[in-house]
Amino acid sequence: MFQRVLVPLDGSDESASALPHAMAAARSLGAEIRLFHVLSSAPAGETTITDPVQWRFRRAKAAGYLARLEDQLRRQGHRVEREIAEGEPAGEIQTAVRRWPADLLVMSSYGGGGSRGAPHGSTTLKVLGAVGTSVLVVPGRGSREAELHPVRYRKIMVPLDCSPGAEAALGLAAALTGEGPAEILIAHVVPVPELIHGATPLDSRDLQMREQIVARNRRISF
To answer: How many domains does the chain contain in total?
Structure first.
């Protein structure tokens, strides 16, 4: 099962949104948390870093940030460690998942450089497309350091397509209900039967027949 939870953080409130969910997962699963920060090759808006003093300042700032979070999580009973890497964020996150290795990656939908108008930031999208482990993506709504508490799930929906891969999500969903009573909704989407038509669109009789087929399938299935 899940024993190691990796949480990428970029120092923003948005990325810290993942922490309460990582805490809930770790507490329910008895897992260890690793706080992970990537010191990118260049800050936003710049192409290169030429000042070694500024570089050391950024690294010290990141180390202090992770140390504060580690202390807060340890005081709440979590097993925590921290790591700082240097390079391109998405690539370093993928490397960290393999090197540790992590069973579960918990990250926000976007970090400090993202936009609330987009569903996911570029780093999250790159990681989702390449990482080979379970990923929990949470909304990047912001979470202040002083208010770190594990979330409690009341309703969890698990979409299933009848494949073994999809069913793997059920174990995590069941574990996340361990902090209190919660309802799990198992959902499956049955495709509407496709009717072949030529140059003319489907008429009312065709549509009525399709609805009858759908209604029959529902009666038999449920």
So the answer is: 3
